User: Which sequence fits this backbone?
């Protein structure tokens, strides 16, 4: 299965990249309200069961992919 | 509306971050097949129409958020 991990900075944390992109977009006449920039990790693993695959990737995200102090993550089954 | 832009390196491009994460996960006894690392951008804009919002964010992604030579992107309506 292919599982995506979407990682975003916590709301309390100053998202400098997001701020920069927001300003860049607004200065180019794309009028946006806000913007946050994070990471997107797609993991392919040899596991046919959806729940098992999600549990395994959740463990990876908690241990290695995200920083719990500054980031939050969400999982998504891609295929 | 809140629209997410998921940006991943093209298959032909060497994804050094993805390779590093893949090796790190496999060395920690998470057995995975492959992994790609990209960017995740959430844009909030003042536009109630779903199609209009998607079109606007597609334009932003094409002009500013992704590099067409090395990356591909997908859009997702978050809410």
Assistant:
């Amino acid at each position: 299965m292919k599982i995506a991990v979407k990682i975003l900075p916590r709301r309390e944390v100053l998202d400098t990249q997001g701020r920069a992109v927001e300003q860049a977009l607004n200065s180019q006449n794309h009028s946006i309200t806000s913007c946050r920039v994070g990471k997107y990790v797609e993991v392919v693993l040899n596991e046919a069961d959806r729940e098992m695959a999600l549990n395994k990737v959740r463990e990876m995200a908690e241990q290695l992919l995200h920083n719990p102090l500054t980031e939050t993550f969400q999982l998504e089954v891609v295929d």
About this structure: Chain B touches chain A through 32 residues (CB under 8 Å). The longest strand of chain B covers residues 34-44. The mean pLDDT of chain B is 95. The longest helix of chain B spans residues 50-65.
